[in-house]
Amino acid sequence: MRAVWNDAVLAESDRTVVVEGNHYFPPDSVKWDLLESTDTTTRCPWKGQATYYSATVGDAVGTDVAWTYVEPKAAAKEITEHVAFWRGVRIES
To answer: Domains in the chain and their CATH numbers?
Structure first.
């Protein structure tokens, strides 16, 4: 699986975890140099607090296109520090 935004691969792995239709990429498969953490957070009742990242490719910035659960609740421990994508990021197989 690949997460692609603005023709750049943000993450690539054959070890994603699918939760609620989203592919969560392991942290070692993410191109962290293209992502920057933001102040955005959300809370899921069963996963816990998510933190967000924006992507920068060339001059283009995608705001809050990725999220992760650094310390998820026990029910979601399998996605600890994994990264999921949305807002224009294509997930390709």
So the answer is: 2-92 (2.170.150.40)
